[in-house]
Design brief:
Elements (H helix, E strand, L loop, with lengths): L2 H11 L11 H11 L2 E20 L2 E19 L4 E12 L2 H8 L3 H6 L4 E8 L2 E5 L6 E6 L17 H9 L3 E4 L3 E2 L6 E2 L1 E9 H7 L1 H7 L9 E9 L4 E9 L9 H4 L1 E11 L12 E3 L18
Parallel strand pairs: 6-14
Antiparallel strand pairs: 1-2, 1-13, 2-3, 3-4, 4-5, 5-6, 7-10, 8-9, 10-11, 11-12, 12-13
Helix pairs in contact: 6-7
């Protein structure tokens, strides 16, 4: 065979990554839903509250504030309509906790927040939710909830709902595409598509069942909007999703929960969609859950 023919044969047999067809993230999600796929998750986030106090340090007056930091791991299991089961191991810490303790005496939201400091485990499966509160040894069955409830109280943007994903992609979106890289955890060589846009919380509430469940009546959404980022791989499979929020004076956008949270961000990483996933209910007794067990609870906090 001539050298030119050999080269053409090799190109045909081994097509370059650069000419691979671009994946359709909505179609890819539907494939995962039909398959009943599952994934592991890692997540992290921060939120700054409006609590502040003037103090004197080294002879100078200054202001200190309080904020929350979250991190953890989990699992999600899909069914034909969306997430049918989820599991969350969430660690929450509070900076300048004494400020929140003082505020809790007059604000039920902060009073409910304090018991969640530490490691909180939640499982949603079979139409019910289970909690293992920080410092406790026994699981509690806290009531009825969707399979998505454990994983989407902090993560407002549920890209595992086809309608929500379509809504995000239908707006004005900025898109970038990475070079081919190896994932440092799975070792898989992949290309990542990165989409960024904005959506108001009211729009998200209308389209997303899991956000409606987490946010309650929706009365506290106001005019707030979040900037979202969605990343999917060369198969179209979800890789990472995140949101961030900033209150600002012009135009007037109040903080979340009647100005309780002025800034926040949260991101969830998905991996191992190709592996089997099982989530089961723990042995538990009926009981009452924590009043404030995720970031979305601030959206239904009482007026101040």
């Amino acid at each position: 065979m001539h050298a030119v023919n050999v080269a053409l044969a090799l190109v045909t047999a081994f097509p370059a990554h650069a000419v691979a067809a671009e994946p359709d993230p909505v179609a890819a999600l539907r494939t995962l839903l039909a398959r009943g796929a599952g994934a592991t998750t890692e997540f992290y986030g921060q939120a700054s509250t409006d609590i502040s106090r003037e103090v004197v340090r080294n002879g100078r007056r200054t202001f200190i504030g309080s904020g929350m930091a979250l991190r953890g791991t989990g699992k999600v299991k899909l069914g034909r309509a969306g997430v049918v089961a989820s599991e969350h191991v969430r660690h929450l810490s509070i900076g300048n906790r004494h400020l929140v303790v003082d505020e809790a005496a007059k604000d039920p939201y902060y009073a409910g927040l304090l018991p969640t400091v530490g490691t909180l485990r939640t499982i949603s499966v079979g139409g019910r939710q289970y909690q293992l509160a920080p410092g406790k040894r026994s699981w509690v069955r806290v009531g009825r909830a969707s399979g998505a409830a454990a994983a989407f109280g902090d993560q407002f943007v549920n890209v595992l709902e086809p309608a929500t994903l379509r809504k995000l992609l239908s707006g004005k979106v900025k898109k970038t595409v990475s070079s081919w890289q190896k994932d440092h955890t799975t070792g898989r060589r992949q290309r990542i598509y990165n989409l960024t846009g904005t959506i108001t919380l009211k729009e998200l509430y209308r389209v997303s069942p899991s956000f409606r469940e987490a946010a309650g009546s929706g009365a506290g959404l106001g005019t707030a909007e979040v900037t979202w980022t969605y990343m999917y791989d060369d198969r179209g499979w979800p890789y990472r999703v995140g949101w961030r929020f900033y209150a600002h004076p012009r135009p007037q956008v109040k903080g979340l929960g009647d100005d309780r949270i002025l800034r926040g961000h949260f991101a969830t990483q998905y991996r191992y969609w190709e592996k089997p996933m099982r989530i089961t209910a723990p042995k538990a007794r009926p009981g009452r859950g924590l009043e404030t067990d995720d970031l979305a609870d601030v959206l239904s906090a009482p007026k101040r």
